[in-house]
Amino acid sequence: MRVGLQIPNFTWPGGAERIGPTLAEIARTADANGFAHVGVMDHFFQIRGLGPPENEMLEAYAALGFIAANTTRAKILAVVTGAVYRHPGVLAKTITTLDVLSGGRAILGIGAAWNEYEARLGIPFPPLAERFERLEETLQICLTMPHPPIMIGGSGERKTLRLVAKYAQMCNLFATPDLAHKLEVLRRHCEKEGRDYDAIEKTALFTFDVREDGGNAREVVAHVRSLARLGIQTVIGGVRDVWKIKPLEVIGREIIPAVADL
Question: Which long-range contacts (CB under 8 A, 24 or more apart) does 181-186 make?
Answer without folding.
Answer: 182/155, 182/157, 183/230, 183/231, 185/157, 185/161, 186/161
